[in-house]
Please model this.
Amino acid sequence: MNAMTTIKGWARELIDLSLLFIAVGVIVQIIFGKEDSWYFGTVTDRLIGFVQQLGDAGFVGLIALVVIIYVFSKRAG
Model:
């Protein structure tokens, strides 16, 4: 059971680190523009595309968004 706890901890840390990189990428693109943010590429375009896909899915997209928010709020609490 201890191994599963360790693996879950690593996965949580990896997700937290990934979210941090996404946030930094968005900030870098807002400040410097898409052309000057060589490392972060098209983070904002991908986020906009993700939100657009959820919107295009209608009610199913709304349910998916609620599930995503629930999972992240459960993790934070």
